[in-house]
UniProtKB/TrEMBL annotation:
Compartments, as annotated in UniProt: Membrane
A GO cellular-component term linked to this record: voltage-gated potassium channel complex
Protein's name according to its UniProt entry: Kef-type K+ transport system predicted NAD-binding component
Ion transport domain location: 23-242
Major localization class: membrane
Lineage, uppermost ranks: Bacteria, Bacillati, Cyanobacteriota, Cyanophyceae, Synechococcales
PANTHER family (UniProt xref): POTASSIUM VOLTAGE-GATED CHANNEL PROTEIN SHAB (PTHR11537:SF254), VOLTAGE-GATED POTASSIUM CHANNEL (PTHR11537)
Gene3D superfamilies from the UniProt entry: 1.10.287.70, Voltage-gated potassium channels. Chain C
Membrane topology label: Multi-pass membrane protein
One BP annotation, GO: action potential
Gene source species: Prochlorococcus marinus (strain SARG / CCMP1375 / SS120)
UniProt KW keywords: Ion channel, Ion transport, Membrane, Potassium, Potassium channel, Potassium transport, Transmembrane, Transmembrane helix, Transport, Voltage-gated channel
Amino acid sequence: MNEFRTKLLDQVTNNNLGTQTSLFNKISGVTIFISIFFAVLVTENQIDYQFGDQIDFLDWVIGGLFCIEYLCRLWVAPLQEKYGKGLKGIFRYVLSPMAIIDVIAIIPSFIGVRAELKILRVIRLLRILKIGRSEKFKKSIFHFNYALRSKSQELQISTVYTVLLLLISSTLMYLAESSIQPELLGSIPRCLWWSVTTVSAVGYGDSIPVTAIGKIIASVTSLLGIGAIAIPTGILAAGFSESIGLQSKSLGEGD
């Protein structure tokens, strides 16, 4: 029994597998994505009407699998140093953030999501939080946090540039268009909405300039908006690359 428990611990924590993902975590990952897929699908009334019973049955099965996963993790928790031995380790695990996420993922299967209350259906989507258990996801978050910390000064400068671009362009558009389109561009806050959609290249088209000077301002804002998107993207990409390079270097030195 102890040998089986130790092997289960290796599967649960992905120990002794290097960069590979254990079968236990692969099954868990597939189950998570299937549950999220059907949670999204069932919000379509026609699909819910035709296949609601089948989807509910599948949801019960998924809930059962999540329960088994939770119990497995609970059983091997005392074998991990970070939780401690015996009941103390189990108690610490139950109060850990990832264990709480597991419970949140299980609850939707047993609260009667067939009700018309949309909030009950949406609760199913909370299972996406379980993706946080993925080792690859954890590594990605680590690299992302490193990029934010190491490039914080550059990102602050980029943010200042974007804010200035939004304020200046919206102010100029207000001066150019407020008298012509008071309903759409009659104040700086309204022009700020136009500026955000223009800089982000969304361009909803609900408010557009009609004067020549307004169109010139819009053109310049669009071109400068490319930098507002590209600069922070490049900064974060450099931070990611630096973090991955440091990790590869440390692994190489370890070998």
